[in-house]
Amino acid sequence: MKMNCFTCMVVLCAFSAVMLQCALAAEYVVGDGIGWNIPPNGAATYTNWASGKTFRVGDILVFNFGTNTHDVVQVPKASYDACNSNNAIVSVIKNGPANVTLDTAGDHYYICTFGGHCTAGQKLAISVSSSSGSPPGANPPTTSPAPTTTPPPTTTPSPTAACAPTPSPASKADGPGTAKSPAATTLTPPPPSSSNAVFASLSLAFASLVLVFLL
What we know:
GO molecular function: metal ion binding
Distance between the termini: 121 Å
Keywords: Copper, Disulfide bond, Glycoprotein, Membrane, Metal-binding, Signal, Transmembrane, Transmembrane helix
Protein name: Phytocyanin domain-containing protein
Pfam families: Cu_bind_like (PF02298)
CATH class of the domain at 26-129: Mainly Beta
Organism: Cinchona calisaya
């Protein structure tokens, strides 16, 4: 059960990452309304279309063309200038419309391989930036790290001082010196009361009278 839950979490995270990438990616229709065709104003048409646009890794180019009438292929700059596909970077895409994902930063060149189309201006050159937004080949400015200040050490009160015993009231009253213990007192039994003595005397007198009558 734990393994199944873990697998589901991994799949969910991967799916979320893909969806996030798709959400952040921009989609550009090459040539807008004219699509991917022989442009009426020559190669300047696609040059003007690309100017002012920022292409980033992950973006998508949509080449709108009819199958069997045009195609598209990515080539190096030399082949772009010469209008040939001898050193094509990828296979020729013959079915339209075609979606091309920009997966690397740098200069990208595309042409149509149909005879005479490239020389008539059906070619596109763009510059792709990294996904972070920095232009290709440009290094972001370096900033010096701010000096770190070390906070002054904090003093912790001594446990002995914090827990010192409170002097007793007796020691404060006696003042400095050692407090004296009270002297031990010995309890002496009280002397017999006078009522006991009178009772004893009466008892003795009564006993004497009894003896007198008996004799």
